[in-house]
Write a structure and sequence with these properties.
With about 120 residues, the chain is mostly beta strands. It has a single domain, classed as Ubiquitin-like (UB roll) (Roll). About 10% of the residues lie in helices and about 30% in strands. The protein contains two helices and six strands. It has a four-stranded mixed β-sheet, covered by helices on one side. A two-stranded antiparallel ribbon has the order 3-4. It is globular, with a radius of gyration of 15 Å. The model has no long low-confidence stretch (mean pLDDT about 95).
């Protein structure tokens, strides 16, 4: 078993589509998220802004089935090879990498985020 190197308790995770090879997103995971991902087969991450563990797709239904986890040579970064359901990006695009540096959008939206993430009535 590798000795993963977490920085401030987190490790960067690059997410790659198993079919196309396209990079879908980059997120962070803590040790618990990595263990949950291994145990369940579905991607879990740690939100730095919300300061909590989360399962990808818990609100949208756009889950990531993790087929393989790879570690880099320094053991301080991971790649999740996934089968993506729906879109990876919370903005509605299949990948989070849908813009060029000049702001040109180079992809089509998969879903409307306002509909998917609308606030639920109490």
């Amino acid at each position: 078993m590798l000795e993963l190197k977490f920085s401030d308790g987190l490790i960067p995770v690059i997410v790659q589509d198993a079919v196309s090879g396209e990079v879908l997103m980059m997120a962070y995971a803590n040790d618990e998220a990595v263990r949950l991902t291994e145990a369940t087969g579905y991607a879990h991450y740690y939100s730095r802004s919300r300061k909590k563990l989360w399962k990808k797709g818990e609100e949208s239904g756009h889950v990531q089935k993790v087929l393989r986890i790879l570690a880099d040579c320094d053991e301080d970064c991971l790649i999740y090879i996934v089968e993506q359901t729906g879109a990876a990006c919370h903005t509605g695009y299949f990948t989070c990498f849908y813009r060029t540096l000049d702001g040109a959008i180079i992809a089509d939206m998969v879903f409307d985020p306002e509909t998917v993430y609308k606030k639920k009535e109490p």
